[in-house]
Amino acid sequence: MKILLGVCGGIAAYKAAELTREFRRGGATVQVIMTANAERFVTPLTFAALSGNQVMTSLWQPINSDVAADESGTFDIEHIHVGQDADVLVIAPATANFIATLAHGFANDLLSAVSLATTLPIVIAPAMNSNMWAHPATQANLETLRQRNVQIIEPGSGELACGMMGAGRLAEPIEIANRVFQIAQQGTDLMGETVLITAGGTREPIDAVRFIGNRSSGKMGFALAAAARARGAEVILISASTTLPVPAGCTHIRVTTGAQMEQTALAELPRASMVIMAAAVSDYQVLSPSAQKIKKTETLTLELTRTPDILRQIVQQRRAGTVVVGFAAETEHVVEEGRRKLREKGADLIVANDVSRAGSGFDADHNAGTLIFEAGQQVIPLSTKREMAERILNSATSIARQLRGKAELAGSAK
């Protein structure tokens, strides 16, 4: 395995030296690319000694040289070939400035040019002052990168070099190394799969302007779509009531009501080898919605009826070998309710989460929950929705292999 390690200019650059050692301990070959500002904190010689390879520092650097080009230097288009001759690009530490550079597509030095020219998976580990980390511009840039399938290893909290306390510390080198090895191993494990994902909260009309809905933002479903696409799957994303940017490479179908989601999901089902029902479908709809706006009165009585049970229909109509994942958004007895839903709906996996938990679930960037399957369960601690998406896909992929393995054995026995 070959890792490109980009080192940006921040005090956390010294931790990239230990990260290089962790990669080497894991059996990887490491090629380090340093920005000019990174060289102000750690010398290229340090990384050359730890990696065993020449450190790249400039677009104009000659091959087999430690310094800038001279009259006898031999040049190559480094930012093209180096971004192809590896398995993953890791940028640690990633400064606020470099995150902005990457998000906006600038190529003003070797590392940014390589990042723009490569088709490799990209993993960034940010490190910066806590106010810079929390700034809306930085968070918007990070969200842009997430939508482009860039993996983000979020910083830890604690005392920073500036003396402040808060989020912004570079994640520990061993944590970064473990995540990178995990991502590299996943690679394109979903190549050949067609993953159907529902996301967002449906809206059931009351009249011409009002509706019954919920607080779902669609972020979990969109994170699943981005993760599945990054792992090689063809992704069909059906979403309701969300304005999130669609992950690159996904087929996107927008709906509004539960009935529309049902119709669309069943129409696309024959193509799917994996279905993940992450949408929050409203449980009830108005029996006879008004075509005009209802005028205000002291009281208003609405007659409600159940919306379609899409998950149950998906399970019943799926073709053999298609894995179905459902969600159970609960506020109490979360695991018990998830287990009941698994049993009653017939899904292969239920993701049960407590949506009453602060900072998690609906309209949040983080989530936590329990994966419930026939043979047991797995707790997912509070993490980003992209990280949770990866774990859900890991479990769904494992179940798919088991189901298809059993099917093959049954077929060969006939």
Automatic annotation (TrEMBL):
InterPro entries in UniProt: CoaB-like_sf (IPR035929), CoaBC (IPR005252), DNA/pantothenate-metab_flavo_C (IPR007085), Flavin_trans-like (IPR036551), Flavoprotein (IPR003382)
Tell me the segments the record calls region Phosphopantothenate--cysteine ligase.
195-414
Looking up Pfam families in the UniProt record yields: DFP, Flavoprotein
> Its catalytic activity?
N-[(R)-4-phosphopantothenoyl]-L-cysteine + H(+) = (R)-4'-phosphopantetheine + CO2; (R)-4'-phosphopantothenate + L-cysteine + CTP = N-[(R)-4-phosphopantothenoyl]-L-cysteine + CMP + diphosphate + H(+)
Positions of the catalytic residues: 162 (proton donor)
Q: What GO biological process terms are annotated to this protein in UniProt?
A: coenzyme A biosynthetic process; pantothenate catabolic process
Where does this protein act, in terms of pathway?
A: Cofactor biosynthesis; coenzyme A biosynthesis; CoA from (R)-pantothenate: step 2/5; Cofactor biosynthesis; coenzyme A biosynthesis; CoA from (R)-pantothenate: step 3/5
Region (Phosphopantothenoylcysteine decarboxylase) residue ranges read: 1-194
The prosthetic group or cofactor this protein requires is: FMN; Mg(2+)
Cellular component, GO annotation: phosphopantothenoylcysteine decarboxylase complex
Under Enzyme Commission nomenclature, its number is 4.1.1.36, 6.3.2.5
| Cofactor comment text | Binds 1 FMN per subunit.
Provide the GO MF annotations for this entry: FMN binding; metal ion binding; phosphopantothenate--cysteine ligase activity; phosphopantothenoylcysteine decarboxylase activity
Q: Where does CTP bind?
A: 283, 293, 308-311, 327, 341, 345
Q: Which UniProt keywords apply?
A: Decarboxylase, Flavoprotein, FMN, Ligase, Lyase, Magnesium, Metal-binding, Multifunctional enzyme
Domain Flavoprotein per the UniProt entry, residue ranges: 1-182
Q: Where is the DNA/pantothenate metabolism flavoprotein C-terminal domain?
A: 190-396
Chain's role? Catalyzes two sequential steps in the biosynthesis of coenzyme A. In the first step cysteine is conjugated to 4'-phosphopantothenate to form 4-phosphopantothenoylcysteine. In the second step the latter compound is decarboxylated to form 4'-phosphopantotheine.
What the entry lists under NCBIfam families is as follows: coaBC_dfp
Matching entries from HAMAP family are given as: CoaBC (MF_02225)
* Family, as annotated: In the N-terminal section; belongs to the HFCD (homo-oligomeric flavin containing Cys decarboxylase) superfamily. In the C-terminal section; belongs to the PPC synthetase family.
What is the name of the protein in this document? Coenzyme A biosynthesis bifunctional protein CoaBC
Species of origin reads Terriglobus roseus (strain DSM 18391 / NRRL B-41598 / KBS 63)
Gene giving rise to this polypeptide: coaBC
